[in-house]
Amino acid sequence: MPLVRYRKVVILGYRSVGKTSLAHQFVEGEFVEGYDPTVENTYSKILTLGKDEFHLHLVDTAGQDEYSILPYSFIIGVHGYVLVYSVTSLHSFQVIESLYQKLHEGHGKTRVPVVLVGNKADLSPERYVNLCYSGQKEVSWTRNQSGSHSGFATDSSHFTSLCL
User: TM spans, by residue (predicted)?
Assistant: First the structure.
């Protein structure tokens, strides 16, 4: 019988970067065409990695900005973060730096996995943040590019690295 582990992962980012689309594509395997601003939503999915089973709880948050105060529920009991920006918005990428700093302050010396995701890569003609720029700003994050609409890289690659 596989060992069952529970993981809580919080998805953070500026508004309209595709956090909900990314989560929904990962859990349901389909793109949601309509847009309704998210207040907060939770998704669950079971992942099997090797002999271990992970019950993944994804917390899809409302959009944050550089002045947002992160509630304790986004800090306490969280096993990892997915920080999402849109490659079509330089400002959304700049907000990620502020969010990362707030996470670092909230967790103190405790190291928590963080995955940086440049979303909307399928809208490359409208791209404002290129791989070189985002790579220069990386700290010690795992970086991924995705396009929720096309399904490009919205498999478990963003989330499985947070389970281990």
Answer: none
Residue 9 has pLDDT above 90, yes or no: yes
Per-residue pLDDT at 151 exceeds 60? no
In angstroms, the CA 5 to CA 38 distance is 27
| Paired tokens of 119 | 């979303």
Residue with tokens 């396009």, as numbered in its chain: 147
Range of the domain at 7: 3-163
CA angle 148-150-155, nearest 5°?
60
Angle at alpha carbon of residue 105, lines to 67 and 115, rounded to 5°: 85
C-alpha to C-alpha distance for 154 and 97, rounded to whole angstroms: 23
